[in-house]
Specification:
The chain is of the alpha+beta class and 478 residues long. The protein has two domains: 103-383, DD-peptidase/beta-lactamase superfamily (Beta-lactamase), CATH 3.40.710; 400-476, Lipocalin, CATH 2.40.128. 25% of the residues lie in helices and 22% in strands. It has helices at residues 29-37, 56-62, 106-119, 149-153, 176-181, 205-219, 223-232, 248-251, 275-278, 284-298, 307-313, 368-383, 400-406, and strands at residues 11-15, 18-23, 44-46, 67-74, 77-85, 100-101, 281-282, 326-328, 335-342, 345-352, 358-363, 391-393, 408-412, 416-423, 426-430, 436-438, 440-441, 446-448, 455-459, 462-467, 470-476. The strands form four sheets. Strands 16-15-14-13-21-20-19-18-17 form a nine-stranded antiparallel beta sheet, with helices on one face. The chain has an eight-stranded antiparallel beta sheet with strand order 1-2-5-4-11-10-9-8, with helices on both faces.
Length: 478
Protein backbone atom coordinates (compact mmCIF):
# COMPACT_ATOMS: atom_id res chain seq x y z
CA UNK A 1 0.00 0.00 0.00
CA UNK A 2 9.92 0.30 6.58
CA UNK A 3 19.28 0.81 10.61
CA UNK A 4 23.09 0.04 11.83
CA UNK A 5 27.17 0.65 13.59
CA UNK A 6 29.89 -0.78 15.89
CA UNK A 7 33.07 -2.79 15.70
CA UNK A 8 33.04 -4.37 12.26
CA UNK A 9 34.38 -7.88 11.85
CA UNK A 10 32.99 -9.45 8.70
CA UNK A 11 32.32 -13.16 9.00
CA UNK A 12 30.47 -15.71 6.95
CA UNK A 13 28.06 -18.14 8.57
CA UNK A 14 26.20 -21.13 7.19
CA UNK A 15 23.16 -22.94 8.55
CA UNK A 16 22.63 -25.83 6.16
CA UNK A 17 21.44 -24.35 2.90
CA UNK A 18 20.52 -21.10 4.68
CA UNK A 19 23.51 -18.88 3.93
CA UNK A 20 24.08 -15.65 5.76
CA UNK A 21 26.76 -13.07 6.32
CA UNK A 22 27.00 -10.95 9.38
CA UNK A 23 28.63 -7.97 11.04
CA UNK A 24 28.33 -8.53 14.80
CA UNK A 25 28.48 -5.31 16.76
CA UNK A 26 29.45 -6.53 20.18
CA UNK A 27 29.43 -9.94 21.82
CA UNK A 28 26.34 -9.22 23.92
CA UNK A 29 24.29 -8.63 20.77
CA UNK A 30 24.66 -12.25 19.67
CA UNK A 31 21.92 -13.65 21.90
CA UNK A 32 19.59 -10.79 21.00
CA UNK A 33 20.16 -11.35 17.28
CA UNK A 34 19.43 -15.06 17.67
CA UNK A 35 16.16 -14.30 19.47
CA UNK A 36 15.19 -11.82 16.74
CA UNK A 37 15.91 -14.40 14.02
CA UNK A 38 13.51 -16.88 15.59
CA UNK A 39 10.96 -14.38 16.89
CA UNK A 40 9.36 -12.80 13.79
CA UNK A 41 5.90 -11.51 14.63
CA UNK A 42 2.71 -10.68 12.71
CA UNK A 43 1.35 -7.17 12.47
CA UNK A 44 -1.96 -8.23 14.02
CA UNK A 45 -3.02 -11.15 16.18
CA UNK A 46 -6.42 -12.31 17.35
CA UNK A 47 -7.17 -11.45 20.94
CA UNK A 48 -7.19 -14.55 23.13
CA UNK A 49 -5.23 -16.67 20.66
CA UNK A 50 -1.60 -17.70 21.10
CA UNK A 51 0.81 -15.27 19.46
CA UNK A 52 2.40 -17.03 16.51
CA UNK A 53 6.13 -16.34 16.16
CA UNK A 54 8.18 -17.62 13.22
CA UNK A 55 11.81 -17.99 12.22
CA UNK A 56 13.47 -15.74 9.68
CA UNK A 57 14.70 -18.72 7.68
CA UNK A 58 11.20 -20.20 7.61
CA UNK A 59 9.58 -16.95 6.54
CA UNK A 60 12.11 -16.41 3.76
CA UNK A 61 11.20 -19.86 2.46
CA UNK A 62 7.43 -19.37 2.89
CA UNK A 63 7.43 -15.98 1.18
CA UNK A 64 9.97 -16.95 -1.52
CA UNK A 65 12.37 -14.16 -0.58
CA UNK A 66 15.94 -15.10 -1.60
CA UNK A 67 17.77 -12.36 0.29
CA UNK A 68 17.34 -10.03 3.26
CA UNK A 69 19.57 -7.36 4.76
CA UNK A 70 19.02 -5.56 8.06
CA UNK A 71 20.70 -2.80 10.03
CA UNK A 72 19.74 -1.83 13.58
CA UNK A 73 20.26 1.50 15.34
CA UNK A 74 20.77 1.48 19.10
CA UNK A 75 22.17 4.20 21.31
CA UNK A 76 22.41 6.66 18.46
CA UNK A 77 24.71 4.50 16.31
CA UNK A 78 24.55 1.49 14.04
CA UNK A 79 24.66 -1.39 16.50
CA UNK A 80 24.72 -4.28 14.05
CA UNK A 81 24.04 -5.17 10.45
CA UNK A 82 23.53 -8.57 8.90
CA UNK A 83 22.71 -10.21 5.59
CA UNK A 84 20.74 -13.42 5.00
CA UNK A 85 20.20 -15.64 1.99
CA UNK A 86 21.55 -15.00 -1.48
CA UNK A 87 21.55 -12.29 -4.13
CA UNK A 88 20.04 -14.77 -6.62
CA UNK A 89 19.90 -18.53 -7.24
CA UNK A 90 23.42 -19.95 -6.90
CA UNK A 91 24.58 -16.39 -6.31
CA UNK A 92 26.72 -14.78 -3.63
CA UNK A 93 25.53 -14.52 -0.03
CA UNK A 94 23.82 -11.27 0.92
CA UNK A 95 26.13 -9.15 3.08
CA UNK A 96 25.65 -5.73 4.69
CA UNK A 97 27.39 -4.29 1.59
CA UNK A 98 24.92 -5.85 -0.88
CA UNK A 99 23.00 -3.20 -2.84
CA UNK A 100 19.20 -3.12 -3.12
CA UNK A 101 16.81 -0.76 -4.87
CA UNK A 102 15.45 1.55 -2.19
CA UNK A 103 12.24 2.14 -4.19
CA UNK A 104 10.12 4.78 -2.41
CA UNK A 105 12.64 5.19 0.41
CA UNK A 106 14.29 7.32 -2.28
CA UNK A 107 11.66 9.96 -1.45
CA UNK A 108 12.85 10.98 2.04
CA UNK A 109 16.47 11.08 0.83
CA UNK A 110 15.33 13.28 -2.07
CA UNK A 111 13.39 15.46 0.37
CA UNK A 112 16.57 16.04 2.37
CA UNK A 113 18.34 17.11 -0.82
CA UNK A 114 15.53 19.48 -1.77
CA UNK A 115 15.45 21.01 1.71
CA UNK A 116 19.21 21.50 1.57
CA UNK A 117 18.62 23.56 -1.58
CA UNK A 118 15.95 25.52 0.30
CA UNK A 119 18.48 26.36 3.00
CA UNK A 120 20.94 27.43 0.29
CA UNK A 121 18.35 29.79 -1.17
CA UNK A 122 18.02 27.79 -4.40
CA UNK A 123 14.46 26.64 -3.78
CA UNK A 124 11.49 28.04 -1.86
CA UNK A 125 9.20 25.74 0.11
CA UNK A 126 6.05 27.72 -0.58
CA UNK A 127 6.57 29.45 -3.94
CA UNK A 128 4.92 28.28 -7.17
CA UNK A 129 7.09 25.38 -8.36
CA UNK A 130 6.76 26.70 -11.93
CA UNK A 131 8.95 29.65 -10.97
CA UNK A 132 11.98 27.31 -10.89
CA UNK A 133 10.98 24.84 -13.61
CA UNK A 134 12.59 25.70 -16.95
CA UNK A 135 12.83 22.41 -18.89
CA UNK A 136 9.14 21.69 -18.33
CA UNK A 137 6.12 23.42 -16.84
CA UNK A 138 3.35 21.95 -14.70
CA UNK A 139 0.04 22.72 -16.46
CA UNK A 140 -2.53 24.53 -14.30
CA UNK A 141 -5.12 22.52 -12.44
CA UNK A 142 -8.91 22.95 -12.25
CA UNK A 143 -8.76 26.16 -10.20
CA UNK A 144 -5.34 27.31 -11.45
CA UNK A 145 -4.03 27.22 -7.87
CA UNK A 146 -0.19 26.99 -7.86
CA UNK A 147 1.67 24.01 -6.45
CA UNK A 148 4.51 24.40 -3.95
CA UNK A 149 7.54 22.31 -3.06
CA UNK A 150 6.08 21.75 0.43
CA UNK A 151 2.93 20.29 -1.13
CA UNK A 152 4.88 18.08 -3.53
CA UNK A 153 7.08 16.69 -0.74
CA UNK A 154 4.06 16.01 1.50
CA UNK A 155 1.76 14.51 -1.19
CA UNK A 156 -0.74 17.35 -0.84
CA UNK A 157 -0.24 18.88 -4.31
CA UNK A 158 -3.18 17.00 -5.88
CA UNK A 159 -0.84 15.61 -8.54
CA UNK A 160 -1.42 12.38 -10.44
CA UNK A 161 0.54 9.12 -10.91
CA UNK A 162 0.85 7.35 -7.58
CA UNK A 163 3.74 5.07 -8.52
CA UNK A 164 5.98 3.80 -11.29
CA UNK A 165 6.37 0.23 -12.61
CA UNK A 166 9.87 0.76 -14.01
CA UNK A 167 11.30 -0.51 -17.29
CA UNK A 168 12.40 -4.09 -17.83
CA UNK A 169 15.81 -4.96 -19.23
CA UNK A 170 15.88 -4.18 -22.95
CA UNK A 171 12.91 -1.81 -22.82
CA UNK A 172 13.28 1.73 -24.08
CA UNK A 173 13.60 4.15 -21.15
CA UNK A 174 11.97 7.59 -21.37
CA UNK A 175 13.50 10.89 -20.37
CA UNK A 176 12.20 12.60 -17.27
CA UNK A 177 10.25 15.11 -19.37
CA UNK A 178 8.62 12.22 -21.25
CA UNK A 179 7.66 10.72 -17.88
CA UNK A 180 6.16 14.01 -16.75
CA UNK A 181 4.13 14.28 -19.94
CA UNK A 182 3.23 10.60 -20.16
CA UNK A 183 4.76 10.58 -23.63
CA UNK A 184 6.11 7.46 -25.33
CA UNK A 185 7.98 5.42 -24.30
CA UNK A 186 6.73 6.31 -20.78
CA UNK A 187 4.49 3.59 -19.34
CA UNK A 188 2.58 5.91 -16.99
CA UNK A 189 0.19 8.77 -17.62
CA UNK A 190 1.03 12.47 -17.56
CA UNK A 191 1.71 14.12 -14.21
CA UNK A 192 -0.99 16.72 -13.79
CA UNK A 193 -2.97 18.54 -11.09
CA UNK A 194 -6.36 16.86 -10.81
CA UNK A 195 -7.69 18.42 -7.60
CA UNK A 196 -7.18 21.40 -5.33
CA UNK A 197 -3.56 21.68 -4.13
CA UNK A 198 -3.34 21.78 -0.34
CA UNK A 199 -6.85 20.45 0.26
CA UNK A 200 -6.20 16.71 0.56
CA UNK A 201 -3.51 14.06 0.90
CA UNK A 202 -2.92 11.81 -2.10
CA UNK A 203 0.25 9.78 -2.56
CA UNK A 204 1.97 10.87 -5.76
CA UNK A 205 5.27 9.59 -7.05
CA UNK A 206 4.55 11.91 -9.96
CA UNK A 207 4.88 14.84 -7.59
CA UNK A 208 8.39 13.71 -6.71
CA UNK A 209 9.27 13.59 -10.40
CA UNK A 210 8.31 17.27 -10.53
CA UNK A 211 10.65 17.85 -7.58
CA UNK A 212 13.39 15.99 -9.45
CA UNK A 213 12.99 18.23 -12.49
CA UNK A 214 12.91 21.38 -10.33
CA UNK A 215 16.15 20.40 -8.58
CA UNK A 216 17.84 19.66 -11.91
CA UNK A 217 16.67 22.93 -13.44
CA UNK A 218 17.72 25.04 -10.47
CA UNK A 219 21.10 23.37 -9.94
CA UNK A 220 21.90 22.85 -13.63
CA UNK A 221 23.28 19.40 -12.83
CA UNK A 222 22.24 15.75 -13.28
CA UNK A 223 20.12 14.55 -10.38
CA UNK A 224 22.41 11.67 -9.37
CA UNK A 225 25.46 13.94 -9.17
CA UNK A 226 23.50 16.59 -7.28
CA UNK A 227 22.27 14.08 -4.67
CA UNK A 228 25.72 12.57 -4.38
CA UNK A 229 27.21 15.93 -3.42
CA UNK A 230 24.39 17.29 -1.27
CA UNK A 231 23.34 14.20 0.72
CA UNK A 232 25.15 10.93 0.03
CA UNK A 233 28.79 12.02 0.41
CA UNK A 234 28.17 14.34 3.39
CA UNK A 235 26.45 11.48 5.25
CA UNK A 236 29.10 8.93 4.35
CA UNK A 237 26.61 6.89 2.32
CA UNK A 238 29.40 5.39 0.23
CA UNK A 239 27.33 2.38 -0.89
CA UNK A 240 24.52 4.50 -2.33
CA UNK A 241 23.81 6.01 -5.75
CA UNK A 242 20.94 7.45 -7.77
CA UNK A 243 22.51 6.18 -11.01
CA UNK A 244 19.99 4.37 -13.19
CA UNK A 245 20.57 1.84 -14.58
CA UNK A 246 23.12 0.66 -12.05
CA UNK A 247 26.65 0.65 -13.53
CA UNK A 248 27.92 -2.85 -14.30
CA UNK A 249 30.71 -2.63 -11.72
CA UNK A 250 28.12 -2.07 -8.98
CA UNK A 251 25.62 -4.55 -10.41
CA UNK A 252 28.00 -7.34 -9.39
CA UNK A 253 27.32 -6.31 -5.77
CA UNK A 254 23.54 -6.07 -6.13
CA UNK A 255 20.76 -8.35 -4.97
CA UNK A 256 18.73 -9.22 -8.06
CA UNK A 257 14.92 -8.90 -8.07
CA UNK A 258 12.52 -11.85 -7.70
CA UNK A 259 8.76 -12.19 -8.04
CA UNK A 260 6.36 -13.48 -5.41
CA UNK A 261 7.06 -17.08 -6.42
CA UNK A 262 10.80 -16.61 -5.98
CA UNK A 263 11.62 -16.55 -9.70
CA UNK A 264 14.19 -14.04 -10.88
CA UNK A 265 12.98 -11.24 -13.13
CA UNK A 266 14.39 -11.84 -16.63
CA UNK A 267 17.25 -9.48 -17.38
CA UNK A 268 17.67 -8.36 -13.80
CA UNK A 269 16.68 -5.05 -12.16
CA UNK A 270 14.17 -2.72 -13.76
CA UNK A 271 15.33 0.80 -14.61
CA UNK A 272 13.61 3.76 -12.94
CA UNK A 273 14.26 7.16 -14.57
CA UNK A 274 11.99 8.53 -11.81
CA UNK A 275 15.05 8.84 -9.59
CA UNK A 276 13.58 11.04 -6.88
CA UNK A 277 10.57 8.80 -6.40
CA UNK A 278 12.10 5.34 -6.79
CA UNK A 279 15.61 5.29 -8.26
CA UNK A 280 18.09 5.02 -5.40
CA UNK A 281 20.37 2.00 -4.89
CA UNK A 282 21.63 1.57 -1.33
CA UNK A 283 22.13 -0.66 1.71
CA UNK A 284 20.38 -0.77 5.10
CA UNK A 285 23.57 0.52 6.70
CA UNK A 286 23.60 3.61 4.47
CA UNK A 287 19.90 4.24 5.10
CA UNK A 288 20.64 3.94 8.81
CA UNK A 289 23.23 6.71 8.38
CA UNK A 290 20.46 8.81 6.84
CA UNK A 291 18.15 8.07 9.79
CA UNK A 292 20.91 8.87 12.27
CA UNK A 293 21.46 12.22 10.56
CA UNK A 294 17.78 13.05 10.99
CA UNK A 295 17.94 12.04 14.66
CA UNK A 296 21.12 14.00 15.26
CA UNK A 297 19.87 17.19 13.61
CA UNK A 298 16.47 16.97 15.32
CA UNK A 299 18.37 16.95 18.62
CA UNK A 300 20.27 20.09 17.64
CA UNK A 301 23.41 18.49 16.23
CA UNK A 302 25.29 18.83 12.96
CA UNK A 303 24.02 17.07 9.84
CA UNK A 304 23.16 17.87 6.22
CA UNK A 305 20.19 19.96 7.37
CA UNK A 306 20.04 22.46 10.21
CA UNK A 307 18.03 21.52 13.30
CA UNK A 308 15.33 24.00 12.30
CA UNK A 309 14.95 22.59 8.79
CA UNK A 310 15.05 19.02 10.11
CA UNK A 311 12.18 19.78 12.46
CA UNK A 312 10.31 21.23 9.49
CA UNK A 313 11.00 17.99 7.60
CA UNK A 314 9.54 16.02 10.52
CA UNK A 315 6.43 18.18 11.00
CA UNK A 316 3.32 16.43 9.62
CA UNK A 317 1.50 18.37 6.93
CA UNK A 318 -1.49 16.07 6.51
CA UNK A 319 -2.41 12.44 7.17
CA UNK A 320 0.65 11.96 9.43
CA UNK A 321 2.93 12.60 6.45
CA UNK A 322 5.62 15.27 6.75
CA UNK A 323 8.18 16.23 4.07
CA UNK A 324 9.23 12.87 2.63
CA UNK A 325 8.56 10.94 5.83
CA UNK A 326 5.60 9.29 7.47
CA UNK A 327 5.35 10.19 11.17
CA UNK A 328 4.15 7.64 13.70
CA UNK A 329 2.96 8.61 17.17
CA UNK A 330 3.46 11.67 19.32
CA UNK A 331 6.53 13.19 20.98
CA UNK A 332 8.59 12.08 22.80
CA UNK A 333 7.95 8.58 21.42
CA UNK A 334 7.30 9.63 17.83
CA UNK A 335 9.06 7.95 14.93
CA UNK A 336 9.65 8.54 11.24
CA UNK A 337 9.80 6.05 8.42
CA UNK A 338 8.98 5.01 4.89
CA UNK A 339 8.38 1.86 2.90
CA UNK A 340 9.67 0.99 -0.54
CA UNK A 341 8.22 -1.20 -3.29
CA UNK A 342 9.82 -1.68 -6.71
CA UNK A 343 9.66 -4.67 -9.03
CA UNK A 344 11.32 -7.42 -6.99
CA UNK A 345 12.29 -5.25 -4.00
CA UNK A 346 10.40 -4.58 -0.76
CA UNK A 347 11.91 -2.47 2.04
CA UNK A 348 11.12 -0.64 5.26
CA UNK A 349 12.79 2.09 7.32
CA UNK A 350 11.64 3.01 10.83
CA UNK A 351 13.46 5.14 13.42
CA UNK A 352 12.57 7.18 16.48
CA UNK A 353 13.12 10.92 16.52
CA UNK A 354 14.40 11.09 20.10
CA UNK A 355 15.26 7.56 21.25
CA UNK A 356 18.31 6.90 19.07
CA UNK A 357 16.83 3.60 17.90
CA UNK A 358 15.55 2.22 14.63
CA UNK A 359 15.90 -0.42 11.93
CA UNK A 360 16.09 -0.76 8.16
CA UNK A 361 15.24 -3.96 6.29
CA UNK A 362 15.70 -4.51 2.54
CA UNK A 363 14.64 -7.59 0.55
CA UNK A 364 14.87 -8.82 -3.05
CA UNK A 365 11.46 -10.49 -3.32
CA UNK A 366 8.01 -9.20 -4.21
CA UNK A 367 6.59 -10.79 -1.05
CA UNK A 368 9.29 -9.22 1.09
CA UNK A 369 7.14 -6.46 2.59
CA UNK A 370 5.50 -8.82 5.04
CA UNK A 371 8.90 -10.27 5.95
CA UNK A 372 10.45 -6.84 6.49
CA UNK A 373 7.62 -5.82 8.80
CA UNK A 374 7.82 -9.09 10.76
CA UNK A 375 11.54 -8.65 11.22
CA UNK A 376 11.28 -5.08 12.47
CA UNK A 377 8.57 -6.17 14.92
CA UNK A 378 10.98 -8.83 16.21
CA UNK A 379 13.57 -6.09 16.73
CA UNK A 380 10.94 -3.97 18.49
CA UNK A 381 9.99 -6.83 20.80
CA UNK A 382 13.61 -7.63 21.63
CA UNK A 383 14.60 -4.05 22.42
CA UNK A 384 11.25 -3.10 23.96
CA UNK A 385 10.36 -0.26 21.65
CA UNK A 386 7.21 1.67 22.62
CA UNK A 387 5.69 1.09 19.16
CA UNK A 388 5.89 -1.35 16.23
CA UNK A 389 4.45 -4.15 18.36
CA UNK A 390 1.86 -6.72 17.32
CA UNK A 391 -1.65 -5.27 17.63
CA UNK A 392 -4.23 -7.50 19.33
CA UNK A 393 -7.72 -7.33 17.80
CA UNK A 394 -11.09 -8.93 18.42
CA UNK A 395 -12.64 -10.89 15.55
CA UNK A 396 -16.24 -11.94 15.00
CA UNK A 397 -17.82 -14.56 12.75
CA UNK A 398 -19.79 -13.27 9.79
CA UNK A 399 -22.96 -14.97 8.54
CA UNK A 400 -22.56 -16.92 5.31
CA UNK A 401 -24.79 -14.46 3.44
CA UNK A 402 -22.59 -11.54 4.51
CA UNK A 403 -19.42 -13.34 3.42
CA UNK A 404 -20.96 -14.12 0.05
CA UNK A 405 -21.98 -10.50 -0.40
CA UNK A 406 -18.42 -9.31 0.28
CA UNK A 407 -16.85 -11.60 -2.33
CA UNK A 408 -15.81 -9.84 -5.54
CA UNK A 409 -13.14 -7.81 -7.27
CA UNK A 410 -12.40 -4.27 -6.15
CA UNK A 411 -10.34 -1.54 -7.80
CA UNK A 412 -8.29 1.39 -6.52
CA UNK A 413 -7.79 4.15 -9.05
CA UNK A 414 -4.21 4.19 -10.24
CA UNK A 415 -3.16 1.28 -8.00
CA UNK A 416 -4.87 -1.81 -9.43
CA UNK A 417 -7.30 -4.37 -8.08
CA UNK A 418 -7.72 -6.83 -5.22
CA UNK A 419 -10.04 -9.78 -4.69
CA UNK A 420 -12.16 -11.10 -1.83
CA UNK A 421 -13.43 -14.67 -1.98
CA UNK A 422 -14.40 -17.67 0.11
CA UNK A 423 -11.63 -20.23 -0.13
CA UNK A 424 -11.30 -23.41 1.88
CA UNK A 425 -14.24 -22.34 4.02
CA UNK A 426 -12.65 -18.99 4.94
CA UNK A 427 -13.14 -15.43 3.80
CA UNK A 428 -9.85 -14.48 2.14
CA UNK A 429 -8.30 -11.54 0.33
CA UNK A 430 -5.59 -11.28 -2.35
CA UNK A 431 -4.21 -7.76 -2.09
CA UNK A 432 -1.65 -8.42 -4.83
CA UNK A 433 -0.58 -11.07 -7.34
CA UNK A 434 -2.81 -13.93 -6.18
CA UNK A 435 -1.28 -13.83 -2.69
CA UNK A 436 -4.26 -14.99 -0.63
CA UNK A 437 -4.52 -14.56 3.13
CA UNK A 438 -7.37 -14.84 5.69
CA UNK A 439 -9.62 -11.82 6.08
CA UNK A 440 -11.02 -11.19 9.56
CA UNK A 441 -13.98 -9.10 10.65
CA UNK A 442 -14.17 -6.65 13.51
CA UNK A 443 -17.70 -5.89 12.32
CA UNK A 444 -19.73 -6.45 9.19
CA UNK A 445 -18.20 -3.26 7.79
CA UNK A 446 -14.62 -3.38 9.12
CA UNK A 447 -12.28 -6.11 7.88
CA UNK A 448 -8.59 -6.68 8.60
CA UNK A 449 -5.66 -9.02 7.92
CA UNK A 450 -2.88 -10.26 10.18
CA UNK A 451 0.08 -9.67 7.86
CA UNK A 452 -0.01 -5.86 8.12
CA UNK A 453 -1.90 -3.07 9.84
CA UNK A 454 -4.49 -2.62 7.13
CA UNK A 455 -8.25 -2.20 7.28
CA UNK A 456 -10.96 -2.45 4.65
CA UNK A 457 -13.92 -0.26 5.52
CA UNK A 458 -16.72 -1.67 3.39
CA UNK A 459 -19.63 0.28 1.92
CA UNK A 460 -22.41 -0.71 -0.50
CA UNK A 461 -20.43 -0.18 -3.71
CA UNK A 462 -16.86 -0.11 -2.42
CA UNK A 463 -15.19 1.43 0.59
CA UNK A 464 -11.85 2.67 1.82
CA UNK A 465 -8.49 0.95 2.38
CA UNK A 466 -6.55 2.35 5.32
CA UNK A 467 -2.95 1.52 6.20
CA UNK A 468 -0.79 4.04 8.01
CA UNK A 469 -0.79 7.27 6.02
CA UNK A 470 -2.59 5.57 3.14
CA UNK A 471 -6.34 6.13 3.00
CA UNK A 472 -7.71 5.43 -0.47
CA UNK A 473 -11.13 4.70 -1.90
CA UNK A 474 -11.97 1.49 -3.75
CA UNK A 475 -14.97 0.48 -5.82
CA UNK A 476 -16.53 -2.86 -6.61
CA UNK A 477 -15.79 -3.97 -10.16
CA UNK A 478 -17.66 -7.26 -10.10
Amino acid sequence: MDAVFARRAVTACALGSFVLACIPAQAQDGDAIARIERGLRPAVAIQGAKLDTRTLAGEMQRLNVPGVSIAVIRGGKVAWAKGYGVTHANGAPVTPQTLFQAASISKPVTAMGALKMVEAGQLDLDADINTVLTSWKLPPGPDKRPVSLRQLLSHTAATTVSGFPGYAAGAQVPTLVQVLDGAAPANTGPVRIEGMPGDAWKYSGGGYSIVQQAMIDRAGRPFDALMDDTVLKPLGMSDSTFAQPLPSALLARAALPHNAKGAAYPGGPYTYPELAAAGMWTTPTDLAKFALAVQRAAAGGDAVLSPTMTRTMLRPVMNNYALGLEIDGKAPQHAFGHGGSNMGYQNSLYAYVQRGEGAVVMTNGDAGAELAQELIRAVSAEYRWPTYQTVMRKAISLPAATRAKLAGRYGIKGLGTFDIAEREGKLMVALRDNQWEPLYAESARTLFVLSRELELHMADKGGRLKSGAFDVAFTRQR
